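C-alpha cells please, single chain.
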Amino acid sequence: MPQKDIYLKGILFLVVLLIFYPVCFTDYVYTDEITQLWHYRPGSGFLMYGIQGRWIPELVLSRLYAAINTVHEITYIRIIALLAWFVCIPVWYAVIKRIVAGNPGYQYLPFFTCLYLVTSLPFAVSVQWATCMELSLGNTAGLLSGAVLYFNIRSKEKLMAVPVVGALVTAGWGQLSLFTYQSCFGCFLIPFLLHYISAYTIKKKLIVAKGLAFYFLMYAVYFVLFKLTLKLNHIGNDPRADIHINLFNKLLFFLWQPLKRAFWFNVVVTNDNKMGLVAYIVLFFGWMALAFVRFGKANWKNALKYIIVVPGILLIAYLPSLVVKENYSSNRTLQAIDVCVFVVCAEMVLYLVKNVQVRKITGISLALILTILGWYNFNKQFLQPVHEEYIAVSDFIKQHYNKNIKTVYFIQPAEDAFRRKYHIQSSMDKFGVPLTFPAWVPEDITRQMVYEKTGNRQVAAELTIKFWPNMHSFTASGEAITENTLLVNVPELITGK
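Here you go.
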C-alpha cells in the first residue's frame, strides 16, 4: 500500500475519533433506543425490524439489547457501531480508489469522498443512534455488491456478459445489504455513477445499463425472499412498507425532500427553511449550467444527456423510499444519495479546475469545513441537547419517584424545544429534536428510569403512565395530582424554569 494512502486513511480515522469520541462515555437514550431497551427482553418475542424486512439488525440488535439492562450500557452498542465503521472505511477508500485508478486528476477523490462520508449526517446517525448501528454494514455491503459487478463487467463487450462467480458474489452482498436496510442498497450504484460522470471512461451506456439491470434484479429477488420470510414467521405486513406507486407524487417528494437535502451536504437545515430552498435551487441549477460549460456549445446534446441521466441515477438510488406509501426522507435513508451528489459535484470541480494551487486551497478548505461541520453537528446539534434532556428527566424521576407512586403524568416537549433553547436547526431524524418528543417515548423511558432506581422490573411495568403534548392539554384534561401521582413536566425541565 502506498505511504500516501496510509496517511490519508489515518487522517480519516483521526477525524472520526475527533468527532465521535464522546459517544464512548456520554449517557443518553434517544427515541427508539428506549423502546428497544425496555422491550427486547429474553423470550419477549418483541420484533421491530423483521416486519420491515430487516432481519439482520433484528437478529443482532435483539441479542445486544437483551444482554444489557441500563441506559448507560447502550454506550457499548454505540462503540460497536463506531468500531464497525473503522473496518468499513478502508473498504470505501479502496473501492473508490480502484474505480478512479489511472484517471488523471482524481487521485484525491477517494479521500475526499470518504471524508464526506464520515462527516455526513447519515454516518453520524449510524454512530450516535444505536437503533441504526447496522448502517455501516448495509451501506458497505451495497457498495461492495455494485463494485464486484462493476469490476467484472467494465471490460466486457456484451450486455449480458457477466461471470457467474462475480454475479453470485454481487447477489450475496446485495441481499446482505437489502436485508440489513433497504435504503443502503442505493450505494450499489456509486461505482456506475462514477463511471458515467468520469471524463476518462468509455462504454458508459453499456456499463450503466448492466448495473441498473442487476440493481432491479436484486430488488426482485429480495422482494420474493422478504415475502417468504414474513410467511414463514407468520408475520403480517407493516403498513409503512406497503407498496405505493404514484409517479407524480413521488417525483415531487424526491425533488422536494431527499434531493434537496443531499444538496445541503452536511448542513443541518429545517426542511421548510427558505434560505435552504434558495441554496438548493442555486446549487442544483448551477450544476446543470456547469454541465453545459463542460461540454461546450458543440456538444450540447451530451450535456443534456448528462443532466438527465445523473439525476435519474440519483432517483433510482433512492428507490426503496420511493415505492412505499410513506413520504419521509429521514437522514438514515440518505447515505447513498448524499455520497452520489457529493461525488458528482466534486468530479465537476476537479474537471473544471485545472490549476494545481487552486485545487490545493480548495481541498484544504473543504477538509476543514467538513470536519468542523461534522464535529458541530454531532456535538452541538445532537449530543449536548439530548444529553442534558436525558439527565434532567432521569434525575427528576429518580429523585421524586417513591413506592407510593402508582401513576405518572408526562408532559412532552414541543418538536422545536431545542431550537428555541439552543438556537439550532433541526433535521428529522435525528438532530435538534427532543428525545421525549415522539409519542412512544414517555411510557418506556418512565418505566426504564423507575426500573433503574428500584431494580424491580415488575413494579415499573405496573405503573399507569399518561402523557400530553403540553401543559395546556394536561390542565384541560382535569386530571388531579395526588400523593400517588408524579408529574414529569419535560418542557419545564428543558428550560430549567
